[in-house]
Design goal:
By secondary structure, the protein is an alpha+beta fold. Helix content is about 15%, strand content about 40%. It is built from two helices and ten strands. The termini are far apart.
Length: about 160
Amino acid sequence: MQAGPTPRFLAVVAVPVPIEKGTRFPRATWPSHVTLASNFFVDAALAEVVDAVRAACVGAGPITIQFEGIAQFGRDKGIRVQLVNSAQTVALHEQLADLLEALPHFAAEESLYWRAGYRPHMTHVAGRDTPDDAELMLRHVVIADIDGADATVLDQFRL
């Protein structure tokens, strides 16, 4: 009997500058990013995940976001984020959700943050905030493997 793909715990984020494939970092010090598809499990080959993410992003082009306030996310509300206004990000999240949820054994870690519960936000490096109404262009998408307290970039591409 042939073994199937190893279940993966992943996240898809948009960033203003590329993060090289293979880069590993503590999750507590992720580079600033806007979450497009929060942490999820899937039992699919990496190539299938990459194909789904790229298909959702085809024609999206760079994403413009506008900052608009602070919020606390996570199970214990211990992750400080900055909310962003971006209809493009919401639309991209929906497209990603459609394609990722169709992959084998998909499960969102926190289903409250998917679909209607998705709130576009930027997670900054500690101690950094951007003034409300400031705009930023996100030009890259990163697919990261979540492994305990660390994350590793599995793939990245330019929008």
